[in-house]
Design goal:
This protein is mostly beta strands. It contains one helix and 20 strands.
């Protein structure tokens, strides 16, 4: 689909943005996973009972100089495609201050394998297995197992796991708020940063162990493994509602 760039000049910020929008509609029959490789940009996915992927995108470039903003925008390359089992999202940006954002509405039952070098990943109303690397991660009404790496920014993660799911969260430079339901059979360990705080809400734990920047707890048969590693930020555990 052909796109036409839009020039936005924001005098208060002494910044120019060149951008264009695109959209794709792809049948979801037989597809079980979303795989995304993004140099720079955000990705959001909202699950719902539907049989298509509606992908809305924005390619953008920014700079204090118009010609540099146009150059940065022109360096972006993106692709939305599918195989019999996967939705494929790819983008490449050759300059800083440039990127491609993707906003996806798709089926709620979906596994995800997402990596963005610089950007936010948001997952909402989904069931599956999720592996994400991003600057920061937010989830809302997410069900299943996760393996998350947040590299630079605060993350707010809500998960409703089953008794035999696994949760692994690592944050390298930012706060983490984790929301989990009360009363699951947890085997929980948190390794925090001693220079930052840690706040833990009791989710029905039977046994707890605490130490400097460390917390562990179990409940029931402890079949649900939760491991959290946080450096450069605080950690908060809350009950999900």
């Amino acid at each position: 689909m052909r796109t036409f760039p839009l020039l936005l000049i924001l005098p208060a910020m002494a910044c120019t943005t060149v951008e264009s929008n695109f959209n794709e509609l792809i049948p979801a029959t037989g597809i079980t996973e979303v795989t995304a490789q993004i140099d720079s940009g955000d990705l959001s996915y909202r699950g719902a009972p539907r049989d298509t992927f509606a992908v809305d995108g924005r390619s953008w470039g920014m700079s204090t100089q118009v010609e540099n903003a146009e150059r940065n925008y022109s360096s972006n390359h993106w692709n939305v495609d599918s195989t019999p089992t996967s939705l494929l999202i790819q983008s490449q940006s050759d300059y800083n201050w440039a990127g491609v954002d993707f906003d996806i509405d798709g089926p709620e039952q979906m596994n995800t394998f997402i990596e963005t070098g610089d950007g936010l990943v948001k997952l909402q109303d989904m069931v599956g297995y999720h592996t994400v690397t991003a600057s920061k991660i937010t989830t809302d009404n997410l069900h299943g197992s996760v393996n998350f790496l947040a590299t630079n920014g605060s993350s707010d993660i809500e998960i409703y796991p089953t008794a035999f799911d696994t949760i692994r969260i690592e944050a390298l430079d930012g706060d983490v708020t984790l929301r989990l339901p009360w009363g699951q059979p947890y085997d929980l360990q948190v390794w925090g940063d001693p220079e930052y705080g840690m706040s833990i809400e009791n989710l029905g734990f039977y046994h707890e162990v605490t130490g400097p920047a460390y917390f562990a707890a179990t409940s029931g048969p402890a079949t649900l493994r939760v491991d959290v590693y946080v450096t450069g930020g605080s950690f908060t555990l809350l009950e999900a509602w």
